[in-house]
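FIELD: query
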Amino acid sequence: MELKNKTAIITGASKGIGKAIAETLAKEGVNLGLISRTLTDLQKLQDSLGSTYGVKVVSAVADISDRTQAAAAVASLENELGAVDILINNAGIATFGTVADMAPEEWERIIRVNLLGTYYVTHAALPSMLAQQGGNIINISSTAGERGFATGSAYCASKFALMGFTEALMQEVRKSNIRVTALTPSTVNTELAANAGLPIGDEDRMLQPQDLADLTLAALKLPPRVQLKVAGIWTTNPQ
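FIELD: result
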């Protein structure tokens, strides 16, 4: 895909992986619609990217686990930017605890954000891609969507489900020239990982947000009709 002058929506855009992806795409000349729950961080990033790279950047504050807020955010961004070419479903949360100990409300919250939030945003953005018969959707999943681990029942369930959602969506839209991809990194050195209590260890040897941004860019630039599942990237392409 030639990226210059394309339009991308990125969720969870104000920090960590989402922010790194936004900066990387702005360098490529992509106009951006940024979604996050934090207004001050969004505004700061919007101003910085627009002035530095000369691309159009707009933002919308939303909790994507709320269907109404997610739909309104996408509609607002499309009203400013036009049809969506690229959707990066990055927003996610993580807390860990045993099935016996984790409060049901917290378990449900993780599913609402990581799975339902991705669905709500995709459902809102997909019509414009179908109308123009083209697009690129990238879901940021995790190795936790490929194998479970103790204390990760909610997070793993959300990411396993996200992988199934990605594959099912691919089968639905591939003939409309829409590529659907899931990236499956292990722990990335972000504020989310630190706040969730994950053992960080040697930060210099961990995956960094920019690593995921570079991988996202590589996935967007894949030639047509390539299929692979390697090095933390699981992707299928239009047929």
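FIELD: remark
DSSP finds seven helices and eight strands in the chain.
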